[in-house]
Amino acid sequence: MNAPRLPQPSPEALAASERLVAAIRARIEEAGGWIPFDRYMEAVLYTPGLGYYAAGARKFGDARSGGDFVTAPEIGPLFAQALAAQVAQVFERCAPRIVEFGAGSGALARDLLDALGSRGVAVERYAIVEVSPDLRERQARLLAGRPVEWLDAPPREFEGVVVANEVLDVMPVKLFVKRGVASFERGVAVREGRFAFEEKAADERLAQAVAVIERAVGELPDGYASEIGFVAQAWMRTIAQRLARGVLLAIDYGFPRREYYHAQRLMGTIMCHYRHHAHADPFWLPGLNDLTAHVDFTAIADAAHEAGLDVLGYTSQAHFLLNCGLLDRLQAGHTHARASEAHRLLSEAEMGELFKVLAVGRGVDVPLLGFARGDRVHTL
User: Fold this and answer.
1) Residue 9: is its pLDDT beyond 90?
2) Separation of alpha carbons 298 and 212, rounded Å
3) C-alpha span between 295 and 169 (Å, rounded)
4) How much is the pLDDT for 63?
5) DSSP string across 256-299
6) Domains of the chain (ranges plus CATH)?
7) What's phi and psi for 264, nearest 5 deg?
8) For range 305-322, the mean pLDDT
9) What pLDDT is attached to residue 10?
């Protein structure tokens, strides 16, 4: 691939990327010249001190602040204020506790606690599971004085609400490609001193997963390439085992299986984010780019169901936020800035349609507020 024309990093950032490249090259050599893409993705995102989420570079925020992208909670408090309505409803059926995964800057935790407080809802425990030391420090500064604790892993047994906002999309994925009727795994090798894709025959697990997809969507054409999120599915099964009672809300960009693996989506959904520029070259400046894949919500819902959870709702972010009273919150304090915030959250051209909300849970028998209209569970 040709390097994208994007803003150039500082000499210090470039040096860090080069150290990560050297470390990954060493892994490839130790593995015999090839590693699967999920191992590469894990390395560029999570290698201690060098990976994108394990180093000190700023990730969240607008371009002027040096950030690479903005998540819904970073736009303003409306997202958390609407989410609070759903959380408060769930708290009527279980303990008022929250576990948030991958809390970013901490903005969602701050605004969600404030919004619940304004509703008179006391949160007994708010825990953040965060793998990035850099982000944990940033969250701690923002949330100083608030009743928040940090965990290295999910609680063994938990009751309450689990929030995963833009978490599943940064879990490593396997890449596959169809060659005739056969399935191959796309991995990473070194050619002429640069990282490059290289294919090997898919193992039984990957080949069977591709076969499951084809039974649902039809035979994929020759040359069709995409990804499968085994790690995200395993994460969901783990949370299912540990959620004694309550609801998990997964908010991310993605599609149900039939849309995800549409025959016209020939090259999958891998995307990189750097200084508010999106590009598709995962080998450009490793460690300095966010590297993501869209979520197959059918696979995530299936993993939850197979592990004993109920699938409680699935809809677009726009429908979810509207059902949770976002417009009421907007009208209560209407300003131009808040109207712009609402537009970004709800518009089909922005986040409203691309982002979806999946709710799964155990022991919660009330229809959830956020899915009162526009529920799309039948599409999963």
Assistant:
1) no
2) 12
3) 6
4) 45
5) -HHHHT-TT-TB---EEEETTEEE--TTSSTTTSEEE--EEHHH
6) 11-64+173-227 (no CATH), 70-171+230-261+283-379 (3.40.50.12710)
7) -85, -10
8) 98
9) 87
